[in-house]
Amino acid sequence: MRAEERQHRILAYARQSGRVEVADAAVEFGVARETVRRDLSELERRGLIRRTHGAAYPVESAGFETTLARRETQQVEEKRRIAAAAAGLVGEAETVFVDEGYTPELVATLLPVDRPLTVITASLRTASLVAASESTTVLLAGGRVRSGTQATVGSWARDMLARFVIDLAFLGANGISREHGLTTPDPAVAEVKEQAVRSSRRRVLVGVHSKFGASSFCRFAEVRDFDAIVTDAGLSAPEAHRYSLLGPQVLRV
């Protein structure tokens, strides 16, 4: 099998499964682990994957984005820990924006229900989950609904957010890097996220370690725009420190 064909199949597997292990790929394709590592290095050079310890994750781009259903099956324990730590940062906030995505959705389910709280979101699923609380007022941004994420985008959602001054925003990203900031594949999604950043007094970024160092198509914020970043311990302490030097507190859980 030629290297180009093998790399194509490795990428397809990573996108289907959410990650690819070096050892598993070596067995699957009948090559040495070093050969797989070279293939992954080439795919990373082309911006298609993000390598971590012994594995690689696909980078979401204008041509590829995972669905919400897929995100619910990947790194679930890490996402739950991140959500719990992030929810602990709510403090006295009375108005909270919750971004689309599985990890922000988990944060939403942990928001306080023993006091009045207004939750603004573009996620249909998040709106449905938090609306069950009698003490929570839910404002759902209007617009076109994206089938893969069950979230609204477009000028209606952006303009609605522009009218608010929000105490706290929980946001996710498809890629997080010191060089390119926070990125996402879809320009329409980026517009909503960017406005949420502008409209919020405090901003907390939630995301698993595999998103760090990756860059997608559309930038919507810089690392310095955030007060805190909550991720898992898969992000090394030295790397977390490098991000903290840009401004935010970085919590590894």
TrEMBL record:
GO terms for molecular function: DNA binding. Coiled coil: none annotated. Residues 3-58 form the HTH deoR-type domain. PROSITE patterns: HTH_DEOR_2. It comes from the Bacteria. The keyword Repressor applies. Keywords: DNA-binding, Repressor, Transcription, Transcription regulation. Repressor of the lactose catabolism operon. Galactose-6-phosphate is the inducer. This is Lactose phosphotransferase system repressor. It comes from Streptomyces caniferus.
